[in-house]
Amino acid sequence: MYYGTPYDESELAAYYTDIRHGHAPPANLLEELRERYRSIGKSPLNEITFSLARKLEAELNRRLPRYPHGLPAAPEPRDLRGDARVYVGAKHNAPFIAGAVRQMAEDGVERAVALVAAPHYSLRSIAEYRERVDLALGELGEPFPVRFVQEYYAHPGYVRAVALRVQRALWRVRDAERATVYFTAHSVPERAAQADGGVYPRQVEATARAVARRLGIARWRVAWQSAGRTEERWLGPDINDALREDARAGLREAVVAAVGFPADHLEVFYDLDHEAQQTARELGVHLVRAESLNDADDYVAVLADLAEEAWYEEEA
User: Fold this and answer.
1) Residue range 60-85: average pLDDT?
2) For residue 222, what are the domain limits?
């Protein structure tokens, strides 16, 4: 499952309305979002997610014994699909999560593992995905059980994959020893973060610390991005504020890694490649963004590990 993004500009109003729980956005906010999408060209999130799903299905079937009991009869010449199937459901656009669950029931799925393309648990992300799955299952009369993967912020393969990309980004700065590495994730309201005991910021911090430890990075910190347009306080500091604060203390080179976002999309391209880069240029800071995991094979392997662990844990 993933957040979703419009396939073209004509879907933007409906998409934004869904994000706002059915309330149409004010015209100025809709236009602001439209301009952000135009500024980045196009978000590739849908394409990345479907590519990731196809690769994950192939990897799971590669790991499974293809004919564990032998062939009792001749299959059809093109009957090559494996036993593992991957379905895609988005939170805010088609194919919606409810539609994916309904299709699974129609296909005769007997049990499933649910994965969200977000490493860290929060009430504003993973919990909401779970609610949508549970609601869809309830409306269908609970056709099959689901094992839900809550988080994978500390999975060794995930930490290794992020560290590799941070290391590559550090190759692009002149003095890696003096550069600061910023690990970012989507901000949430402070009230929401406190509601579950601060699990979300602690997990983001744990990911950052694990990557920094693996690479021997001395200068690093967690910053936040993509805060909502509401009156309440959101987790901070924002990445732009963190850059300004550190520039006053002498920062001249930096790397930013969006550990809360495995895939490239609007909030990576606009918030980091546009806004944060603009802030860095104004401050005279050389800022390099670490590449996202997207549909890379090492990330596919992490998701396959998680699916397998959940599947066989459910059987035990």
Assistant:
1) 87
2) 156-289
